[in-house]
Design brief:
Strand order of the largest sheet: 4-5-6-1-7
Strand content: 5-15%
Number of helices: 12
Number of strands: 9
Shape: elongated
Structural class: alpha/beta
Distance between the termini: 42 Å
Largest sheet: 5 strands, parallel
Order of helices and strands: HHEHEEEHHEHEHHEHEHHEH
Helix content: 40-55%
Length: 318
Amino acid sequence: MLDQITSTIEARVAPLRKIFLKNSAYRHFEQVFTELLERRSSEIADGVTREARCVALIGGSGSGKTSAVRHLLAHHPRLVFGGPETERLDVVSLAVPTPATLKFVGQTTLSALGFPLRRERTAQTIWEMVKGHLQARRTLFLHYDEAQDLALHQSPRELKSVVNTLKSLLQHQAWPVGLILTGTPELKGIINHDVQLARRVFPIEFPRLNAALDSERVLSLLSHYAAASGLELRSDVIQRDLVARLIHAARREFGLLIEMTIATIEGTIRDRRTDVEIADFARMFRKRSGCIDGLNPFIADDFERIDVSRLLYGGEND
């Protein structure tokens, strides 16, 4: 009986996780990526080789930048990702591994291309293999998620090698490959480390939410998710005060706000109720953070002073 109830709840919540709401940063990314894809496809058709370009999506953790890339790659009508009749792999996507040494990143890239390394090689040899396999699979773009980690614990000399390797992919004489880099604001340091790399980059920043400017959009978002789950929003939810509290609780990050909205709705469904109230948001945050009610942004009067990033937060001395 419990398994059946759980299955029913998941059946109602799962579709919410598939909803993708486009914001201005996503539309900008979609436009830039499509233009670069069309240019590269035209060059290949004409037998022309020009250096590729890089798109850098920069935002805080939970901003939605990684989801934006995944959505665009999964739904772009002109991309091919292999299959029974072709080895073509238009885009290779992977997270920067830890430790993010040049050698290990190269090995991980080879594996993502379908060619795991079977014996020890130097970093230089590995990256030459990467370039060869990128050409063999007709890869047009290489996506590195958490790209800020490429500079983590690197000496100036090592960082220079990372930057030179990225540039070499863009400038390869036989098969230049475009880059998509997603990362936190620390990624700017890698891009600005080298003027030649910076001029080849289209930067797109995922801005943080602002309660004064984004209230209507967030209210619309809440209504959309509630309707999709078959629930109603109580009057205490359709208020700018609730929106301001939710934006603060989500650290002003768009993707995290959506995650919290879905978690709140799931709690309402589990209670077998048909309307969402502000107490559901408070319970969601309490479950996520373990905080006391006095430090719950959906309960406290002076919620803006609360450090919502801290778990099990009980007061200033914690």
